[in-house]
């Protein structure tokens, strides 16, 4: 079974489908750093399948360059990452590239199309910050490009992922239009708000997941069983070294715990990378100390208006009062990871009061359920953006497995009809 990933980002959704046994025909992503991350991940999967993971780990250890890593895999695996913006100007050339991939691998049909257009135009926060409520943002209409792929390749299934704010964007008009267009090109459609926490992710992360299937196919929206590992968020940090702001340490301090192993976040042969913390000034570290202390002792979030006057530098004392937030190590789920972590770490403070810092790149990736062998390319800011925008791989895997199960039943029915 295969898929095409649109607006692929760093590949969280793709990763889940690959784990569930799907083959990636193409990933389309406009950001150059995310595209490099996708290519590097393609190298991981190829080398793993060919029992050559030690060559991938050479790259993580800095023993070979990225270019040397890329030389170790077939060019087709790198070319299936299409670093292009999806637009009216580029869509035909993107189609041509995908068609070439299909021909080179003798693939005669596309099973699934996955992806979600950038969510800024639909998010509640984005609309609140924009004076026009993002009404004029062209990203409001990227779903129309998604529809063109459905019309062109007629997949059996598709998965369209976005933020819950999609349901209220433009007074709900966009949400209705998206589903109407999908039905118009030949699909039955169903939409649900799913929570990553129900798929074994130690994070509350709600997303609208629209799933469609060909009309008359007899398929349906998959039924997902809730997964609970009975773990605390602290499980994500146990084996990682303490860091001072600006410090990096890429050696584990203990063996992986049960959650890390069961979730696939860490394997015994993994090489730790990207456990690096950003720098902080003394004022911010003091605020972090107060925030951590208040959470650990009272289980309460600190408000900006609770801070001593000498620590307050913002004139705005009425909105965004929860701008400093500690990752709750003693709960089963953290709060939602956001791409805003790329701007500062105030909303994702490490729970250890001795460290007084925001979380590292690797800690953020773990909250999103990315495995430690997943390497993010680009500068630190770009890494945080990729992680914050991603679909958690564990959530994606659960969705993919549900679709795979339905597709297997569908294939058996098709075979039975041919025999009859």
Write a brief caption for the model.
With 420 residues, the protein is of the alpha/beta class. The chain has helices at residues 12-19, 32-49, 53-60, 66-70, 75-79, 91-104, 124-129, 143-153, 173-184, 258-263, 282-298, 361-367, 380-389, 393-419, and strands at 2-6, 23-28, 81-82, 112-115, 157-162, 187-195, 206-214.
Features:
420 residues; 10% strand; 14 helices; alpha/beta; seven-stranded mixed sheet; 37% helix; globular; Rossmann fold
Largest sheet: 7 strands, mixed
**What would CATH call the architecture of the domain at 2-226 and 394-419?**
3-Layer(aba) Sandwich
The largest beta-sheet arranges its strands as 3-2-1-4-5-7-6
Proportion in helices: 25-40%
Globally, the shape reads globular
How many runs of DSSP E, i.e. beta strands? 7
| Average pLDDT taken over every residue | 93
First-residue to last-residue Cα separation: 24 Å
The CATH first-level class of the domain at 2-226 and 394-419 comes to Alpha Beta
User: Count of helical segments?
Assistant: 14
- Uncertain segments are none
Structural class: alpha/beta
- Give the percentage of residues in beta strands: 5-15%
Whole-number radius of gyration? 22 Å
Q: Indicate the CATH topology of the domain at 2-226 and 394-419.
A: Rossmann fold
CATH superfamily heading of the domain at 2-226 and 394-419: Vaccinia Virus protein VP39
> In sequence order, what are the helices and strands, one letter per element?
EHEHHHHEHEHHEHEEHHHHH
């Amino acid at each position: 079974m295969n898929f095409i990933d649109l607006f692929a980002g760093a590949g969280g959704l793709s990763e889940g489908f690959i784990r569930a046994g799907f083959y990636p025909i193409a990933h389309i992503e406009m950001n150059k750093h995310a595209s490099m991350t996708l290519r590097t991940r393609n190298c991981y999967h190829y080398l793993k399948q060919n029992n050559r993971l030690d060559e991938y780990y050479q790259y993580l250890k800095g023993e070979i360059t990225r270019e040397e890593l890329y030389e170790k895999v077939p060019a087709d695996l790198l070319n299936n990452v299409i670093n292009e913006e999806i637009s009216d100007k580029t869509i035909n050339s993107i189609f041509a590239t995908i068609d070439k991939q299909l021909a080179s691998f003798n693939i005669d049909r596309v099973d699934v199309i996955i992806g979600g257009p950038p969510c800024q135009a639909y998010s509640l926060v984005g609309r609140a910050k924009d004076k026009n409520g993002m009404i004029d943002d062209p990203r409001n209409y990227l779903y129309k490009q998604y529809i063109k792929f459905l019309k062109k390749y007629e997949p059996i299934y598709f998965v369209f992922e976005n933020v819950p704010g999609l349901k209220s964007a433009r007074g709900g008009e966009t949400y209705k239009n998206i589903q109407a267009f999908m039905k118009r090109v030949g699909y039955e459609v169903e939409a649900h708000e799913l929570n990553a926490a129900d798929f074994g992710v130690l994070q509350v992360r709600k997303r609208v997941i629209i799933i469609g299937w060909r009309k008359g196919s007899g398929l349906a929206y998959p039924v997902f069983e809730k997964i609970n590992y009975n773990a605390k968020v602290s499980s994500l940090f146990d084996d990682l070294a303490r860091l001072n702001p600006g410090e990096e340490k890429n050696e584990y301090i203990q063996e992986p715990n049960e959650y890390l192993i069961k979730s696939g976040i860490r394997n015994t042969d993994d090489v730790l990378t990207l456990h690096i913390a950003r720098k902080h000034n003394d004022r911010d570290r003091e605020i972090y100390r107060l925030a951590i202390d208040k959470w650990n002792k009272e289980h309460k979030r600190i408000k900006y208006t609770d801070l001593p006057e000498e620590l307050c530098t913002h004139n705005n004392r009425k909105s965004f009062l929860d701008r400093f937030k500690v990752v709750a190590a003693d709960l089963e789920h953290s709060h939602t990871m956001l791409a805003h972590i790329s701007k500062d770490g105030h909303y994702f403070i490490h729970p250890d009061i001795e460290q007084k810092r925001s979380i590292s790149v690797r800690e953020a990736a773990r909250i999103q359920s990315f495995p430690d062998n997943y390497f993010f390319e680009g500068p630190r800011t770009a890494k945080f953006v990729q992680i914050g925008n991603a679909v958690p791989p564990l959530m994606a895997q659960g969705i993919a497995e549900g679709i795979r199960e339905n597709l297997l039943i569908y294939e058996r029915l098709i075979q039975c009809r041919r025999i009859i």
